[in-house]
Fold:
Amino acid sequence: MDQQFSRYVNVSALKNLFNVSNSYVINKLLIILLPWRHKPWARKQASFGSSETVQYLPPREDVNSPDAYIPTMGVVTYVLLSVLLAGLRGAFDPALLSSVLTWAFLMIGLEIMILNLAKYFLSINSVSSLLDLISYAGYKFVGINVTILLAEIYNRGGGTGGWFGWAVFLYTYNANAFFLLRSLRYVLLPQDSGAPGVAYGPGVSSRSLKQSRTYALAGYAYLAQFFFMYILSNNV
Structure:
């Protein structure tokens, strides 16, 4: 079974994404929720002498590195929070665990599909892996959980609506969008950020491609994230 799993998932890369420390988790959560003054955003590269393969430091050693621990805990918290609120409303059903988890995975899957389509059509070939993109997609659950928890407390179980719920949602949404805009710049705009990436193809204007990539990044960070965060926040 382990061999079959290794055929589809880079186990070494997956383990690396869980290589976190307590200080990393705390600092990363602060960056996700308060990203406005964080600098720099570039990931640190590991030094392996004359090796031409670009490798980055693990999360434990670089706060700008994506990790799988926070997104995983974010999804688990989202599921448990949804079930808890359903129980408090007298609508608990054991099937909620699987349905909420499935819904969360569907949203992440759709988001990853959009990202990969953008990378394909914009000729982006960065060193960031699929697991990295899944991690970035999962960071939104930090803001979603904060929105649900604070809104439910303020509204006394009345849901995430009202002015307070919207205020918290808009803040966490903007924080997440800004975080992704800065972090994914090194994925979708590799040349402009100084990170290694694919060269512009023949017959392709570097200026027009740069502009298209910038629009795609902004659209993903702000338009797509609003859709996904709104849907997930109101699905409890």
In short: The longest helix spans residues 206-233. The chain has one domain: 65-235. The chain is about 65% helix and 0% strand.
